[in-house]
Amino acid sequence: MNITVFDDLQKLYRKAADTFLDLSQKSIEKHNRFVVALSGGSSPKAIFNLLATEEYTGKIEWNKIYFFWVDERWVSLDDDKSNAKMTFEALFDKVPINKEQIFPMYKDGIAPEEYAKEYEQKIKSILGNEGVFDFILLGMGDDGHTASLFPGESVLEEKEKWVSAYYLKSQDMFRITLTAPLINKAENILVVAFGESKKHALNEVLSGEYNPELYPMQLVEKKKGFSFLQMRRRKAS
Asked: What does each C-alpha distance from 111 to 155, 164, 166 come to in angstroms?
């Protein structure tokens, strides 16, 4: 496991963008494609904004990248809560991407549980039965959740499904998510997590006793290809 601590937020975002660029180039050189699953939230948005700048966009072969999502709120694609909407606005609308290689985690006119099955088939159509993503970008919530793997939910116990949808009572909405077994297949996983409100959960995830029911981020295996970017504020002099 590779843990990098920053004292400057922009340096953290730049490291994440550099990682995306580097892994895309290596994967495309080796496999002629780069298959990724993206996270939502403010940190990914900042990373996407950076990737959309001239400094990065000309160095990335966007038409050889396949984009999936790690998780999504079950809301329409034009809803401000949609991770896909944010990603289009921050990145996709600004770079030359093949829109047929973008797979939003939402579809009108279908139940979320049914679309979870359909989404799994979409992943298999690109990655086959092995299901190994080249890169997955994750965040972590204040409660130690990642993707839509929330504390105490039965989805934490999933062993077979690659994608699961369920009703999250605490948020009064359906969520759809990649499951831990699929996430752990990935060649490379980058976690971006920082902020005082996450400090306790972060300490538990990285060095506490194994208790994924309480801290689901612990379900993600800290193996080769796993990197953690966090931030520590400079102490006042």
From this structure: 17, 12, 10
Q: Strands (DSSP E) along the chain, which ranges?
A: 2-6, 34-38, 65-69, 71-73, 135-139, 163-168, 173-178, 189-192, 226-231
pTM of the model: 0.94
Alpha carbon distance 111, 138 (integer Å): 25
Find the angle CA(178)-CA(170)-CA(86) to the nearest 5 degrees.
50
Q: How many residues does the chain have?
A: 237
Q: Which of 75, 86, 103, 82 is nearest to 174 (CA)?
A: 75
Which candidate, 149, 127, 152, 151, places its Cα nearest to that of 139? 149
Residue-wise pLDDT for 189-232, tens only, equals 999 988 787 888 888 988 899 999 999 999 999 888 899 898 87
